[in-house]
Amino acid sequence: MKTEHMKTEDLISLVNTTMPYGKYQGRVLADLPGHYLGWFAREGFPKGSLGQLLALMYEIDHNDLRSLLEPLRK
Questions:
Q1: Mean pLDDT of 59-73
Q2: What is the pTM of this model?
Q3: Distance separating alpha carbons of residues 52 and 48, to the nearest angstrom
Q4: Do residues 30 and 15 lie in contact, with contact meaning Cβ atoms separated by under 8 Å?
Q5: Mapping DSSP to helix (H, G, I), strand (E, B) and coil, where does residue 44 land?
Q6: Which of these, 41, 16, 42, lies nearest to 29 by C-alpha position?
Q7: Which of 2, 8, 10, 39 is surrounded by the fewest CB atoms within 10 Å?
Q8: Residue 7 and residue 24: Cα distance in Å, rounded?
Q9: Interatomic CA distance for residues 3 and 67, integer angstroms
Q10: Are the C-beta atoms of residues 53 and 14 closer than 8 Å to each other?
Q11: Based on the number of CB atoms within 10 Å of its own CB, is 74 exposed (0-12), middle (13-18) or buried (19 or more)?
Q12: Each residue of 1-60: pLDDT tens digit?
């Protein structure tokens, strides 16, 4: 999967956007568990901006970089 260039706004969105549906509905994207993100990576990310954010969060989680998001939390 080709990843677009990451923008600061995308990182901010990860700590402010909630999952709109599914088992983790209402949970902030940055707080989604790694196994759930991995499921999307295997099965396919949704289309559009949500899918792009989930793919970005998967890469952050997979590379053990979640701590980079902490300063962005309100």
A1: 95
A2: 0.89
A3: 6
A4: yes
A5: coil
A6: 16
A7: 2
A8: 25
A9: 21
A10: yes
A11: exposed
A12: 455 567 889 999 999 999 999 999 999 999 999 999 999 999 999 999 999 999 999 999
